[in-house]
Amino acid sequence: MAQEKHDLQLEDVQDYTSDYPPDYPGAEGAETKRRGLLCGLIMGNKKMTCLLALVFILVIAIVTILVVGADENAIEGFHQPLIIIDPSTLDASVTGPLMASLLAMYDRNGMDSTPLDPSSGDNTPQRRAFFWLAHENQNLDHSTKMARYALAVLYYSTNQVPTEFDEEPETWYVARRWLTKASYCEWHGIVCDAQGRVEALEMDRNFLTGVLPIELRILEDTLYSIDVADNGISMSEEDFDVFLNLVNLEEFFGDNNYLEYSEGLPPQMASLVNLEQLTMSYNLLGGELSADSVIPAMGQLTHIEMEANYFSGSIPDYIGEMEDLVYFYMRRNNFNGDLSFLEGGAMTTLFAMWLDGNDLTGTIPAQVGSLQNLASLSVSNTKLKGPIPAEIGDLLKLRRVWMYDNQLTGEIPLSLQKLDKLEVLELHNNNMSGSMPQGICDIFAGVDYDFKALTADCNGAVSCSRSCCTKCY
Question: What is the DSSP code string of 28-41?
Fold first, then answer.
């Protein structure tokens, strides 16, 4: 998927907070996916940083090979063959009690045990997980055994499972130590708490296909994060039942899969009442969100990222009432309403809002000036018209603004001269007139940022010298 230039700097929360001061929202604790930090270091001292980075990566690779390669239980290499246990080799004295324990567990959790029944055949993920668990036959406590079973079902539900989008999938890219007798805390992508309970699944970019199984409910007490971004997972309708009981989930990263629903968000996701981060960009989600009850049920949300889907209609008013929302990314959908959701002035914690690539109409409301923590705003390539409100000059933390490819009119507000943190201000391909305020030119003269940009229609109705604007249109 092609990225625009500013995507490289503000692609996601971890990328763009990494080069912001520590007091910006989200800058603390964004340990995962922090590619932007490395980019920032490289930009600052290219030769030395690259050399040190290469040496560091080489050392880590050698240590990893030595440590992991010495473990005879480790499953090494990429795209390892699927582990299949022949049920004819199993001991009936083991399978009988184990099956009874599993059926009781299904009953306690209100889950359908049909896929575990012999009548379903021996190739369901549940049957294959049962065979594997009986085969390993370890003397483990009940909770540990059930957790191993749940993870084994995940393995068989998402590993080399054909879908309509991939009829001949490969196996997982990395399955290190999966389905060995090692603790599941040592399996690739499994993060455990101090008590050895599963708290996070970090399975992004690992060639997962199929569906997330309902058996993840077994892990519901401690599971707080699921990252399956950039895979080939294909889910629709009842497949989303997996979310019904994951009430402790705080993070779900599901970008770039085949998650399909045509009436907003799957209603099962309303159970995720403690969810803080929801990222589902580049999926097959559509319909209107205005009548959707899922997002309002997620009262803890701080991060909504659902770009490049097929959502339509207006951006709901309830979005504008989310006082704790920090990141709001809904680029490249089919929204065709206006920005009236901002008129309530309640989104005072909002840090980044990207709505470009939609068919937004109307004007930019003056209430945009209430977004006092806003640092990044993108409303480019829409159908917005009218003047830029002077109240934008009240957003003193604003750093990057994209408003190009619209139908904006009037002059560039003098109030923008107060925004001394500006690094990007792109206003070209509009119907504006007048001059670029000298105060803005002075701000950009002092900007030390490799991707700084100040653009306007200075080949047309806007006056801006070549020494001020970085590019004229």
Answer: TT--TT-HHHHHHH
* pLDDT value for 77: 82
DSSP 367-398: GGGG-TT--EEE--SS--EEPPPGGGGG-TT-
Rounded to whole angstroms, how far apart are CA atoms 53 and 345? 45
Q: Which of 6-10, 130-134, 378-382 has the lowest mean pLDDT?
A: 6-10
Closest CA to 409 of 466, 372, 345, 363: 363
pLDDT digits (tens, 9 = 90+) for 442-463: 999 999 999 999 999 999 999 9
Tell me the average pLDDT of the chain. 88
Distance CA 473, CA 469 (A): 10
pLDDT at 178 over 90: yes
Written as one letter, the residue type at 217 is R
Whole-number Å distance between alpha carbons of 470 and 356: 22
Q: Two tokens at 252?
A: 């779900």
> What is the pLDDT at residue 282?
98
Q: Is 150 exposed, middle or buried (0-12, 13-18, 19+ CB in 10 A)?
A: buried
Determine if residue 230 is left, alpha or beta; phi over 0 gives left, psi from -120 to 50 gives alpha, anything else beta.
left
CB atoms within 10 A of CB 8: 14
List Cα–Cα distances, 314 to 288, 300, 319, 320, in angstroms. 7, 22, 11, 12
Q: Is the pLDDT of residue 94 over 70?
A: yes
> How far is it, in rounded angstroms, from Cα 435 to Cα 464?
6
Within 18-141, residue ranges assigned H as helices are 35-44, 46-69, 92-108, 125-136
The pLDDT of residue 300 is: 96
Select from 265, 157, 158 the least CA-distant residue to 204: 158
CA dihedral 15, 19, 20, 24 (to 10 degrees): 40
- Residues 454 and 444: their CA atoms lie apart, in Å, by 8
CB neighbours of residue 196 within 10 Å: 13
